[in-house]
Design a protein that fits this description.
Helix 1 crosses helix 6. By secondary structure, this protein is mainly alpha-helical. It contains six helices and three strands, in the order H-H-H-E-H-H-E-E-H.
Length: about 140
């Protein structure tokens, strides 16, 4: 029931957002001519982020951090069922890319927690409606 309510609200707001984006882009297209070179540069700038976020585990990690705030390495490993090396590599990449922050509590015992940065938080907020909206025909 809650899933359906959330989906309904997200889809309604996404429709309004998409209409606003489409209107903005149409205004830009009318006011200026976009060259193929400009288009190519834009796509290339977006490619690195798209590639990172589309890799296995990236969005799952970001969503767990979103819903749980700070999460330890072991807890992430248990939730995802991923091996330590893969998780470590993915967390390092997400941290270096500015989506997550790593906090070390020297303990004892030593604990390492991860949380979202503002960039990570905003990315999840933007991706969540997109995922709901784009999967609506699959459910």
């Amino acid at each position: 029931m809650l899933e359906r309510e959330i989906r309904k609200m997200i889809e309604a707001r996404m429709r309004r957002t998409l209409e606003g984006i489409e209107e903005t882009i149409q205004e830009i297209f009318k006011s200026q001519k976009i060259s193929l070179e400009d288009l190519k540069e834009t796509v290339q700038r977006l490619e690195k982020s798209f590639n990172l976020l589309s890799q296995k585990w990236s969005l799952q990690i970001l969503y767990i951090l979103f819903f749980r705030n700070a999460v330890g390495f072991g807890e992430l490993k248990n939730i995802l069922g991923v091996n330590s090396r893969t998780l470590s590599d993915k967390l390092k990449t997400l941290t270096e890319s500015g989506y997550a922050t790593r906090f070390v509590d020297p303990g004892p015992p030593l604990r390492v927690n991860y949380s979202l940065t503002k960039k990570g938080w905003d990315t999840v907020l933007l991706a969540l409606p997109l995922l709901y909206y784009s999967s609506r025909d699959l459910v």
